[in-house]
Amino acid sequence: GRGNGVVRGQDSGHFGDRRTMRVRLVAIVAASVLTVGGCSASGDDRLVVAAGTTLVDSGFLELVVAVYEASPQGSEVSVVGLSSAEALSYAEAGNADVAITHEPGALDEFRASNPGSITFVPFSSRFILVGPTGYEARGSTIVDAFRGIAASGDPFVSRDDGSGTFAREQVISSEVPHNPADDVWYIRTGSGIASTQLCASQRAAVTLTELGAYLSVSADLALEEVDVDSAVLLDNPYDLSVADTENERAVALAEWIAGAQGRAAIEAANEQLFGMQVYRAP
Predict the structure, then answer these.
(1) Are the beta carbons of 91 and 114 closer than 8 angstroms?
(2) What is the Cα–Cα distance from 212 to 118, expressed in whole angstroms?
(3) Which member of 28, 186, 187, 207 has the greatest number of CB atoms within 10 A?
């Protein structure tokens, strides 16, 4: 059967200071439709994909993987949900065959350690600011909104982990700039996207999230998207990485996602989950 795989990390920056990573494995998503022989990072016939929790919690990646498994070239896939930094570390340690992440800094380090790796952008989404019903940003851009939060002390919930979402929060807050390390309005979860959104909802707070992860649970949250404009700062490309190019099954999955069948699966998963293209193929 299928469940949800989530690993949590912890660090911080401008809207929080860097900490030691803390990992908590909750579960692993495992899907079995068609098995093809060969070795994988898991030590058995499964192909292991380490992916950001935004993709796992939204349900998007599970749908795409299911189509691949059922395809003639497909193999059994297990998806492990992690922060982006942890996903790349997981792959570099040989514990995952493929990583799908959205943290450019961690990816740069991964590429430096694995100069022959395959990396490309299979799809992109966008980050959004959400807050309690009726909340209005103090200004028209995401930087203005963050500056207003710092000035007013509006409660803000941060993932405060090694995720792409938290990395983008740091980029935005560096434009303010303000370090809220000791500010009571700055609430750290050290956790994934789902629990961070729930915390923000329960506390009538603002948080930075990802569109697909928000839409998948928005009906159960007392949060609405806040109207802010900043196309570049909120654009959210995902990177698919394969460290071992001799891993034929990992390369096959990468090529499938990059090809026409993968694009069709991406578009179909978007329509099924959201009725629109949230994770947009190039």
Answers:
(1) no
(2) 25
(3) 207
- First-to-last alpha carbon distance for the chain, in angstroms, is 31
Secondary structure (3-state) at 225: strand
Give CA–CA dist 9/155, Å, rounded. 22
Q: What is each CA distance from 137 to 14, 130, 165, 169, 225, in whole angstroms?
A: 20, 10, 19, 16, 10
The backbone region for 16, taken as left when phi is positive above 0, alpha when psi lies in -120 to 50, beta otherwise, is left
Q: Are residues 77 and 61 in contact, defined by beta-carbon separation less than 8 angstroms? A: no
* Structure confidence at residue 195 (pLDDT): 95
Task: Name the nearest CA neighbour of 244 among 236, 233, 232, 252.
Answer: 252
Q: Is the pTM of this model over 0.85?
A: no
Q: Give the total residue count for the chain.
A: 282
How far is Cα 50 from Cα 88, in angstroms, rounded to an integer?
Answer: 8
Q: Which of 128, 98, 126 is nearest to 239 (CA)?
A: 98
Residues linked to residue 6 through DSSP beta bridges, in sequence order: none
Q: Is the pLDDT of residue 40 over 70?
A: no
- In the three-class reduction of DSSP (H, G, I as helix; E, B as strand; rest coil), residue 78 is classed as strand
| Torsion sign over Cα 95, 100, 104, 110 | positive
The SS3 call for residue 155 is coil
Cβ-in-10-Å burial (0-12, 13-18, 19+) of 218 comes to: middle
DSSP 218: G
DSSP-H helix ranges across 114-217:
142-152, 164-173, 193-202, 211-215
Q: What are the DSSP E strand ranges found in 83-234?
A: 98-101, 118-131, 156-158, 186-188, 206-210, 224-225
pLDDT(50) > 60: yes
